[in-house]
């Protein structure tokens, strides 16, 4: 049956090898997925600061990280302004963000802002600081360097290592079972092969399903806009900002001018001080559009209309977007997969008795009034047709 | 007896399919044989290859799949304009006029980009419809051949520099005593006329010449002599019981085809209760769609027309007619018919021949048609061109009398018979300024290019027909550093105002007649701007008196050269390309001619009789009159002894699409007695022995001899409304099925096409292409019969090859309720929706093409290559500017998948969502697919047949209604209405 055994093995080995490579690549790349690459415009920056030595930079870093105390009971800069990437949401600008902001400004500017803060949030923390202008110069030197270097990428730790380990064990078990035959207990082989195989299969299936989806995607936005502050604390209606959701395919991100309706007065945030709102003012004054990071991405071949779901069906935003009013940083809650859409279309009741549009569905209305059907779902009115979304 | 229908001459002669394939299949037969035998496969290492491929594909697919999610940015407006809602389209009323065609239009603007043109339903002229060329004009906005900035002798300059130089040049031209000439196409904008007159009044020794490549100069002159009115009267085709056309393709290319089609078809609607149907006789040399629509078509030689008209005139005026060979009996019949419908008939003549036009006027006058059918009180202003002035201008240029020239919307180097003379004359003109928007042969010879905006970037107005104003407004900011031609002239005249201010002032004083600007004016202006049209009542005075003397003034010469072996050639316009102004538009180039079904070429149409005598066949290259080399098409219905070819092709400076496509035949035309004569005697047609590959789409999808088009005559229809459609009853009687009948609750979309109304004008094809992002694939691919149009117009001939009947049938996906394609898809990418639409999920398609093979209508299209991104298809979709025209509501399809008509599902969905949100019932005919929306003759009706009261449900019950190949029990959702011709048999 197999005239060419060695050839077959070679081929099989190659296949396994390639498969591993592919899997590795796949896992590796998806681990980086969504992590924004910070573009560091490497403009010349040291002009006007005098000679900065490597030692200055090192000392500046130590000051920033709090290794050298800045004052009695003073918190270190780094305790609020994170130097490394973090998972949690930080209301305060990160060290990198401040560094980039002050790259074109002088140490004196920085000193003034740090030592004589205008926002109440900063005043609360900064009032204990005792920093000399010289120290500030050192901090600034480090910050300039940091602005250019960018934040370190966090090391990617996931179950890839575990997967590879299992793979080795798996291959060893197979090899021993078929070729070497060193270990006499066949049951052991079987257990290892089964256990490792099943786990690997599960991992592969899991990763494959997650391909192209980004549930729980929660990137840092250019401005720390909090839906919690706006929609929950201040009780702003979703449709005040996303005003076109009822009429258009898109929900629409409000224009900068619309933000300024309120922020022309509100200049200081309850958590973020002035730093974040200042970005908005700056965008408005310099007429530079804000480049938000899109969180909810549907593939191009799927047409979704907010007008249909919000306008016509009257769905609540949270049905798809989750408890947005509890989110400081917007996150994709649903996986936005086709199965998820269809589940809803199969179970959501359509208001066919009251909406005149559905008056043409005679049969359906008869069925409901005769009790043959409890209620009509989107499926009954064609909500699971391909061309409802794909055209 | 069953009528014999045939699609091509080969089929008519009974040449078998195999012979045909051998002649026409493009691929190397040996290649196929090798593939079939497996010779080209190296069998020895197939398993290893297989494993390698497996590994590679897994690796690459994993890599590709996992890389697909880059960080996407969402950038909102800084300041959102009040009227813009991202994700929804705005429609702006505007005006299209390119010197040939006029249309009041609505521009669909999505996210700041104009993406589609539609007719303005408030316009009395177009009634919401538009021609193929108007539909396609949106692509011209994104044409990469457009001038982006002003230039001086090829070097880019800024406007300040250009303005200074031009002003200096004009001053020195005036001081040298030389003449300044403004050469334009016909100008129908009243404000532009005023600007040009102002300019002329400031420039000493200046003259304005309007030039039409499609000249109506003879008709203007004839009316001037007969009625003392140098205008084109308004012709009501709908009011005539008998229309007799002499070489006037008024449904396709002549004057206002869209308006005329609407009127014409209105007069020819038949139903069981309506009794009247107009009659139409067409005399022409080549087969046009107007000839195809006619109840009787008489092939004539183009130069014969004068004797024919003379005969008719004498017959009707009681004189002694001079016999016209072979046509007397037919002409007598026409004369009788005309006499019977006095005051209710209409003669139109499309030849630019002064004598013929005077005779036509004479006959129309004898019949009393002026007043009831032809109206001088609301003249058509679409042609002002004076051939005599043009003739004189060339002489003056060559004599060195012209020292400065401004050229706008005119390309005489290309489309004037003596283009060469014009070109050599230009060398003697000191200052040549081109105000063109796209590069052309004439602008190529100019010193200064002061580029005009595209019409979608411009302000403007138009007065196409007296009393019917329309406004033009920009739908986008200029894409380049261009300036409107009116703005340039104002600047050079030393005016302070920009054109927008000028236009508003002009309308205030001259159109609305308001003494001052204020709220009243603003309201009126905004109202007009929103509606696009403004109609003033024109009093219908008495028609001008006919000057009998002008008939006597006609020269006795017939113009016919009766030599043996001579051919009379007629230079015609094709529906797509027209005068060639839009030749760089790939949509138009790929649009198959409705009659010949050829795209990407012009050709010499030869009668089958002559082809036999000269042993010519389609594709042979011939030399005409020694210097024009052109391929031949054997055209059934072409009058023996005549040939014809379309102008507008053979552009040498036009852009990447048009250059090198076809042959310019205008140099064959002549200027006779100061009129451009598009009919010439050709002394020789020699076969060169070479063959030309022509992209024929006619044999794409042969119906293999089955009676697809059903037709009858008015007489038979009156006796039996099922006439011609007897088969339908038979099929209905025999329709049994073991399965449950498919039932639709609520919505069931369906379409009906009235074959009696369809003229074959092909507007729907382009509308569909624009709406649905259908790629252009180029001549080679069309030749391989891969044309992507979702909507095709099948053309069938029946009867005599020398004068066949021609039938058009638009065919798109029939959305069968028992669809053969759906059963065979292995991945269920195509299936039936709850609303009766045969849906196609592109992402699911894996390209097996089983559905294509199983579709009896052959309406499914396959993306053989990456037509949308690859530089091998360098038309518009591969460049970033060209892609701006794409409709964001329709997926751009990948390589390797199948696509087809979706009934414009995006429009259905949009209308449904709107109705749902407003909690109301969908109105009948609220949803219009792009084809139905644009159809000039309103032949296409779309609606919900589940609603008993809808118009479409009524049509489906009509006795003329039938379905294509319904004997297959595919249960199509598209119905056709039997064609009815107004003749005896």
Give a quick set of tags describing it.
heterodimer; A: 391 residues; mainly alpha; Cytochrome Bc1 Complex, Chain D, domain 2; 1% strand; flat; B: 985 residues; alpha/beta; Rossmann fold; Dimethylsulfoxide Reductase, domain 2; 5 domains; seven-stranded mixed sheet; 44 strands; 29% helix; globular
Description:
- The complex is a heterodimer of chains A (391) and B (985).
- Chain A has helices at 5-32, 54-65, 77-80, 95-102, 107-115, 120-126, 133-149, 160-180, 186-210, 227-233, 238-241, 256-263, 275-286, 306-312, 318-321, 338-347, 362-369, and one strand spanning 292-293.
- Chain A has 391 residues and is mostly helical.
- Chain A folds into four domains: 5-31 and 157-210, no CATH class; 54-149, Cytochrome Bc1 Complex, Chain D, domain 2, CATH 1.10.760; 220-334, no CATH class; 337-391, no CATH class.
- In chain A, α2 (54-65) packs across α7 (133-149).
- Chain A is flat and about 85 Å long.
- Chain B is of the alpha/beta class.
- Chain B folds into five domains: 1-75, no CATH class; 151-210 and 385-465 and 467-535, Rossmann fold (3-Layer(aba) Sandwich), CATH 3.40.50.740; 233-380, Dimethylsulfoxide Reductase, domain 2, CATH 3.40.228; 567-696, Barwin-like endoglucanases (Beta Barrel); 711-736 and 746-981, Alpha-Beta Plaits.
- Chain B has 31 helices and 44 strands.
- In chain B, the strands form 13 sheets. Chain B has a seven-stranded mixed sheet with strand order 7-6-18-17-16-8-9, with helices on both faces.
- In chain B, a hairpin with a 2-residue loop joins β28 and β29.
- The longest helix of chain B is centred in the first third of the chain and has 21 residues, at 46-66.
- Chain B is globular, with a radius of gyration of 29 Å.
- Chains A and B meet through α1, α12, β1, α14 and α17 of A and α4, β2 and α29 of B.
- β1 (292-293) of chain A pairs antiparallel with β2 of chain B.
